[in-house]
Specification:
With 313 residues, the protein is of the alpha+beta class. The chain contains 7 helices and 14 strands. The strands form 2 sheets. Strands 1-7-6-5-4-3-2 form a 7-stranded antiparallel beta sheet. Strand 12 (230-235) and strand 13 form a beta hairpin. Helix 4 packs across helix 7. The radius of gyration is 21 Å and the shape is globular.
């Protein structure tokens, strides 16, 4: 069996400890790595040095998912990983993150991979070569950008949540959000929808939505569904004011009713603020504008989900 070993590296203007923390906390990954859609921590040992995670990500233009076991060593600033369940054409995949201090304010991040293709298939190996190279470069570039952004003064990444209380079941509220292929019929602000689910629980959602001014915008998102509790998504075609948009729909039954919530995490594209909102506009203005636009759509969708669940019940 042929095992390929490759290495990529980048230098970042951030302390090594900060770089390690960002890599160690996998819930940050959809925010910092373009290919990553969603990450779940499946299990962890008592000390937090061993964990099993499940990752949903794009590779070679296709959405895939796998589980990976990680060993974290905060003293050595190393994280090793090994995929437990791989996706064809990958037969085996593992590697190591190594963070090396370069003085007090800089660090070098090295990303090592070793992998094999199923049956040593040369086409499969070529596909993995290209996917690992492309994803490693984009991951390291994004990691550099986000680490350095975290040390900048302006707070351009923010999160917020909108919610409604529904006198109906979580299952029915969940179904309304899950059945996005019906949104053009059910939601006034949605013009057209294209929903595909090539593997169970992993959806590609493209839709055209109408803004208040009548203009139509096309968006594409990858969604990961967890019936009937939550749907995580990452938008991959972004409006000019955003460089990142991830979200989470959650449905929780409480004594008062089902609490349905829509959580957003956004990073602003500060380079476009003046062009979109005018030369006097500030980061705070852009935050308010984006927050308002996303909340309007979320609350409209949650309102229709509420009506659907209450009428179905």
């Amino acid at each position: 069996m042929t095992t390929r070993e490759v290495e990529h590296e980048i230098t970042v203007n951030a302390p090594a400890a900060a770089a390690y923390r960002l890599l160690a906390e996998v819930t940050n990954w959809p925010r910092i790595f373009p290919p990553t859609i969603h990450v779940d921590q499946v299990e962890t040992n008592g000390t937090g040095t061993e964990e099993l995670i499940r990752i949903w990500a794009t590779a070679g233009g296709e959405a895939k998912n796998w589980t990976s076991r990680r060993t974290l060593d905060p003293d050595a600033l190393r994280i090793t990983f090994r995929q437990e369940i791989t996706t064809p054409p990958v037969a085996a995949m593992g590697g190591t993150w190594i963070i090396e201090p370069l003085g007090g304010t800089e660090s070098r991040i090295r990303l090592l991979h070793d992998y094999r293709a199923i049956d040593d298939d040369p086409d499969g190996l070529r596909w993995i070569d290209e996917a690992v190279d492309r994803n490693s470069r984009s991951e390291l570039s994004a990691l550099k950008e986000n680490l350095e952004l975290a040390h900048a003064a302006e707070d351009v990444t923010f999160s917020f949540t909108d919610s409604v209380l529904i006198q109906g079941s979580a299952k029915q509220a969940y179904e309304f959000i899950d059945e996005a292929d019906l949104w053009a019929e059910r939601l006034p602000h949605v013009a057209t929808v294209r929903l595909t689910e090539d593997s169970p629980g992993l959806q590609t959602l493209e839709m055209d939505t109408r803004a208040k001014d009548g203009s139509v915008h096309t968006t594409k998102s990858y969604r990961v569904t967890f019936p009937h509790h939550r749907i995580a998504y990452k938008q991959v075609t972004l409006p000019a004011l955003m460089t990142l948009h991830t979200g989470l729909w959650t449905f929780e039954e409480t004594p008062e009713g089902t609490l349905a919530a829509s959580q957003h995490t956004v990073t602003l594209n500060t380079a476009n603020i003046a062009a979109i909102l005018g030369p006097e506009a500030t980061v705070a203005d852009a935050r308010a504008y984006v927050h308002g636009a996303l909340s309007t759509n979320s609350l409209a969708t949650l309102g229709h989900a509420k009506s659907y669940a209450e009428q179905s019940g």
